[in-house]
Amino acid sequence: MRNENKQFQYKRYHIPNLVKAISVFEKLSEANEGLTQLSLMKSCKLTQSSVFRILATLLDYGLVQKNYEDNRYCLSKKFLHLAYKSAKNENLLKSVVSQMCEICDVVKETTMLGVLLDESFIMIHQEVGKNQFNYTASVGLECPMHTAAGSKAVLAYLSEDELNKYLEKMRFTKYNYNTITSKKEFLKELELVRKLGYATDCQEYVCGMNCVGVPVFDENGKISSAIWVTGPSDRLKEKDFEKIANIMKQILGQ
Questions:
Q1: Angle between the N-to-C axes of helices 90-107 and 241-251, in degrees from 0 to 180, rounded to the nearest 10
Q2: Phi, psi torsion values for 109, nearest 5 degrees
Q3: What average pLDDT does the chain have?
Q4: What is the DSSP string of 225-242?
Q5: 221: enclosing H helix or E strand
Q6: What is the pLDDT of residues 113-162, one digit of tens each?
Q7: Residues contacting residue 69 through CB under 8 Å, at least 6 positions apart
Q8: What does CATH list as the number for 79-251?
Q9: DSSP 128
Q10: Distance from C-alpha of 41 to C-alpha of 178, rounded to nearest angstrom
Q11: Cβ atoms 232, 135 nearer than 8 A
């Protein structure tokens, strides 16, 4: 009872509409297939007007997404990213941000950190390059799994069972002339990543953009994330990939 009283010691200061929005969040987090507006009205015991306004606001801020085929709402990648970052990535960032800065200082190109989240590979931090022109992206960027150097560097070191879970849901969309477009070809690419110890994106997603990525392991030797550098192909040249990867691995202590 004491803990319960402590939990709600500020109840008299609660904002009613925020409390309603929190109840919507909680219900959506429990529903893997999403919920309709009517379902939320019933489960949260809210009026149609309240649920409509809450969902409209959350949609505008990108915290929920709507499937217009069945009118169901679910939590968005942005919301999951924010939750993941606050819960887990604080320690990860603390452990690698100084090394990312050093990589960026040496290579001069934008250096990014990404993790697997749900069924996606998400960029969670970047150090902007030292050139007059640099590639940058918004934190939370979802990278195509079959093209990104970072995702390849992580997927290559998963167990077979873990990898298969991702492969089952991957779509090998062709973005550019160099894009990998089949599971068989992608598995060969991951085998090469394990052999070399680094992954590349040689204009596979964006024409004129190259990336070199290396895996990051936790204290137990388990793959946790990947760091990669990205830059224009006339500066980040294919012939320099191995040299750049070795610099990155040396800084990371690999």
A1: 130
A2: -105, 160
A3: 88
A4: EEEEEEEETTTS-GGGHH
A5: none
A6: 998 876 789 888 899 999 999 999 877 788 899 999 999 999 999 999 99
A7: none
A8: 3.30.450.40
A9: -
A10: 48
A11: yes
Question: What are the extents of the domains in the chain?
Answer: 2-75, 79-251
- Give SS3 for 19: helix
What letter represents residue 151's amino acid?
S
Burial of 64 (0-12, 13-18, 19+ CB in 10 A): buried
Contact 193, 187 (CB under 8 A): no
Task: Tell me the sheet residues that pair with 206.
Answer: none
CA distances from 143 to 51, 73, 91, 117, 122 (A): 32, 23, 22, 11, 6
Residue-level pLDDT at 109: 97
Q: Using CA atoms, how far apart are residues 253 and 239, in angstroms rounded to an integer?
A: 23
Decide: helix, strand or coil at residue 249: helix
DSSP-derived letter for residue 202 is E
CA distance 105 to 103: 5
In angstroms, the CA 157 to CA 134 distance is: 29
Please give the radius of gyration of the chain, using alpha carbons only, rounded to the nearest integer.
Answer: 21
Name the residue with higher pLDDT: 30 or 102.
102
Topology given in CATH for the domain delimited by 2-75: Arc Repressor Mutant, subunit A (1.10.10)
- Asked if 73 and 56 touch (Cβ cutoff 8 Å), the reply is no
